[in-house]
Amino acid sequence: LTLSGNYSNSGTFTHNSGLVTLSGGNQTINGTSTFYSLNKTVSTAATLTFTAGSTQTFAAGGTLTLVGAAGNMLTLASSTGTSAWTINPQGSQNVSAVDVSWSNNINATAVDAKNCSHDGGNNTNWIFDLCNIVWTGAGGTSNWNQANNWSTGYIPNSTDNVTVTKGGAINLSLEVSPTINSFTISTGNTVSANAQTMTVKAN
To answer: How far apart are CA 3 and CA 57, in angstroms?
Structure first.
């Protein structure tokens, strides 16, 4: 089953050990369902929205595939932005280059989000691998809290290793007090702290 639009279930969905492919751009999964295998893979930035309060189960033997691309992440979001959606992946997982928020994984096995996936906050039982992020200043400002100033297209957080190597003339200037894993300033680059506090966990 391949869908370019939204998926909505207010009745009963029987997966018959099949694959559901979400082939559109921004799409929504409404209602609670048990899938066998589900695949949404994007090469340009897109959002997959889940109904807050719903539970999506992925049966044993199947595969959950949620894959974005470097600099073009697949965002996994709640329909409200203030309440969680629940996931129960019982089979195998291929989760990569995703930006996740408000997700409650109730399976005993954590979802391991790879390839510079981003913890957007309010997630339970997800693992986000360390990511190496480079300050580029490509957004045209000196602001830390501007996503397109960073190589990954998102603002670094506590699981990220940050390197300041601007591509142009714009130096980094802190307008917030961030927490990151490590921090490196390359030769010829300048960082202004502006009385902010940076917390570096590793070094």
So the answer is: 18
